[in-house]
Amino acid sequence: MASVTSKTPMLRAAAARGYAAHAQAAAASRGSAEVQTTTLPNKLVVASADPNAAVSRISIVFRAGSRNESADNVGAAHILRAAGGLSTKTATAFGITRNIQQAGGSLTTAADRELVTYSVAVTKDQLEVGLKYLEATATGQVFKPWELAELTPIIRNELARLPVEVQAVELLHKAAFRDGLGNSVFCPDYLVGKHSSETMQHYFAANCTTNRAAVAGVGVDHQMLVGFAQSLTLDSGAGSENKSSFNTGEVRRDAAGSRAAVAVGAQAVGWNSMKEAMAFWVLQHAAGVGAATKRGANNGVLTKVLSGVNSSALYNGYSDNGMFGFVLSGDSKDAGKAVEAGVKALKSLSVSDADVARGKASALAVVAEYTENQSTLLHQLGEESALLGQVYKKSDLLAAVSAVTTGDVQAAARKVSSSKLAIGAVGNLSHVPHLCELH
Fold first, then answer.
1. How far is CA 34 from the centre of its chain?
2. What is the CATH number of domain 36-231?
3. Which one, out of 32, 250, 363, 372, has a CA that is 20 to 30 A from the CA of 194?
């Protein structure tokens, strides 16, 4: 079924023109049969792969996630996400929905702490229609006050349905990073319905520029994608880089009921330190990311001590920083005991050759599956293009994981063991220890 779902917005559109144009000679281009990337003179990065796929999928990605919010526009990234598909300078919300549905496609928006992403998926014979309304949605939104007002019940409903584990991880980010990466991907409840058209226009203009953008495609000719990217009407400008440092801290939110969710994090690294980041990623898989079979045990080196609760190791890697730890949920008494056990395990975290081999095998399987699925491949292309300015081929990623040694993972574990901690907790916290009580 065709669909238009919401999760982000942007500036102005310029219809279907010159999509088959070739890159200018000044563009820096590199690539292979697997992945092609081109950097335009205006710094916008274009990446593509698998041009013969039956369905064309294209994303316009901006470094406009919640880490870029300031005190006067907290929650703007969430509003951008929710406003995706609303009226633009060249199309009404009804027109966008009707035309995408008639083309049998889908138009979606998504946002996280670093990125806001607009994506369209259509069959190749409907590509011109898909690109037209993708461009309109991603570059031409006008944020009409009455349309923004209509988002209020939608956003409140989304906030009311957030799993407690997600809430705990959001609180953990606030405790660990405060501003920047500490900004939640969800609008604070007290600010829902308070973002004006002017606020949204200013946020878009400041963060959605060519220097902060990428265009990614799967199932589309690379040179045609370059022509499409060149035609986008976007301002230039580097914007501001909101750096975040890791801090010790604790954010707790009491709630009714008998259950609690707790997330604990230690200092890690970001993807700008690729080799170390890969070691932390393997460590996460060795530490435990869930049972491998339906009735299997979650027997990672970390999660095996978190008895009586649902748990998973946690590695949140960002472009310039990262956090490693665990998240758990369960009955308040069980959660309290598990937190104590989990912190002790973090403080003495170590891995064997067998643990690393298991972690690498799990990570390799994730890479293979992720890059063979066209939707997740598109996400990878857009994310790496926008944040790193380059794209890693599947073979590069597999080689990077394979190159991780036991010594690399042990070094990551030692970094975690010696790090200060941050905690986010929500629910019945009567039995959940405070950070100062954990040793």
1. 23
2. 3.30.830.10
3. 250
